[in-house]
TrEMBL record:
InterPro entries membership: Actin, Actin_CS, ATPase_NBD
GO CC, alphabetical: cytoskeleton
Keywords tagged on the record: Cytoplasm, Cytoskeleton, Hydrolase
GO MF: hydrolase activity
SMART domains, per database record: ACTIN
Official protein name in the record: Actin II
Principal location: cytoplasm
Natural source organism: Babesia microti (strain RI)
Length: 374
């Protein structure tokens, strides 16, 4: 369709993945973040925030745009500073979550085709692209990101829309739970509510979660010389021990986080049971975990045991964590599979007719996105 390759973009609640279609991994993964004056974005914004020189602005929340000015800034930053690419020369494949609001889809389509003047545009469901990124066309994909989690059944590339089930626990909830439990153990009274007192503290605790949290009895505790710790603004030092396996337990017991929702195993079962009976055994045997939160040590093992206990003895449950090839830059793992799937799809000859072209947009307007990107 065009001489220059397409660009594949994934804007998650926590991070942006950006790169060239056909590559095995994104060129860059950077924080989806801005400072309060919208002067700095990505890593530059994080540098300012870590010095406590500004307050954070998160362009996306729960997988969708919640600050359009900040989102526009992070999009420009991606083209101009990260990829150093002229948006007018590249078609754009953008990933999106399930049940993306119609207004948001139309507005994003309009901005990319009018403001960024891209030659063609497409929005692809993250879960479907994650599945393609593993080389499969059928499976039960559980996307577990920092801000949003969904169980999405897919049969031969067809998303079972009526069966998609949202899971109301995501990575940020585990980070907050880790913070809350550690404060309680240290008998520290803090009126932070659901918010952290500042960004550096949030970043530190989130990193502790990613590096050290695990499921006891299903994974070895991390080998560390001393317990990880953090320091509150009042200089009170807090060490973490049992909280490292207690905090992620909210995935299997949401009530511990004051959430009135199904736990993870039952969310998956619900999604499978909403599918036609002839597809269920195949979905049980192809459960794929994607997204950064899916990398918690012991999660796959514990989930398999609990799913098997809830299922009929004749049901064979097979769970895997989506993986991609390491390119030597550290770009691999379950949090990259949706980008990799988009990279594969955007280069297929059979996909080229799927783009929303400029002519189609000029004729039908932003609503064309619903017809071309189902």
């Amino acid at each position: 369709m065009e001489e220059t390759p397409a660009i594949v973009l994934n804007f998650g609640s926590a991070a942006v993945k950006a790169g060239i279609a056909g590559d095995e991994s994104p060129i860059s993964c950077f924080p989806n973040l801005a400072d309060e004056n919208l002067m700095h974005f990505g890593h530059a914004a994080k540098d300012v925030l870590m010095k406590r020189q500004s307050k954070p602005i998160f362009p996306y929340t729960n997988g969708i745009v919640t600050n359009w000015s900040a989102a526009n800034g992070i999009w420009k930053h991606t083209f101009n500073e990260v990829l150093k690419a002229n948006s007018e020369e590249h078609s754009i494949l953008l990933t999106e979550p399930p049940f993306h609001p119609k207004f948001h889809r139309e507005k994003i389509c309009q901005i990319f085709l009018e403001s960024f003047n891209v030659p063609a545009f497409y929005m692809g469901l993250s879960s479907l692209l994650s599945l393609y990124g593993t080389g499969r066309t059928s499976g039960m994909v559980l996307n577990m990101g920092q801000g949003i989690s969904y169980a999405v059944p897919i049969i031969e590339g067809c998303v079972q829309l009526q069966s998609i089930s949202r899971f109301d626990i995501s990575g940020i909830d585990i980070t907050k739970q880790l913070f809350k439990l550690s404060l309680a153990k240290a008998d520290v009274v803090a009126n932070f509510g659901d918010n952290f007192p500042d960004y550096p503290l949030f970043d530190m605790i989130d990193n502790i979660k990613c590096r050290y949290c695990f499921y006891r009895d299903f994974a070895k505790s991390p080998e560390i010389n001393e317990s990880p710790s953090y320091t509150l603004p009042d200089e009170n030092n807090i060490s973490l021990t049992d909280e490292l396996f207690e905090a992620p337990e909210i995935i299997f017991n949401p009530h511990l986080n004051n959430k009135n929702c199904l736990d993870l195993p039952r969310t998956i079962l619900r999604a499978i049971q909403l599918c036609e009976p002839e597809y269920r055994n195949e979905l049980y045997s192809r459960i794929i975990l994607a997204g950064g939160t899916s990398r918690l040590r012991g999660l796959v093992e514990k989930l398999k045991v609990q799913l098997q206990n809830l299922s009929l003895p004749s049901v064979k449950t097979i769970i895997s964590t989506a993986q991609t090839k390491d390119d030597g830059r550290g770009n691999f793992g379950s949090e990259y599979t949706d980008w990799v799937g988009g990279s594969i799809v955007a280069t297929l000859s059979t996909f080229q007719q799927m783009w929303v072209t400029r002519d189609e947009y000029n004729e039908a307007g932003p609503t064309v996105i619903h017809r071309k990107c189902i």
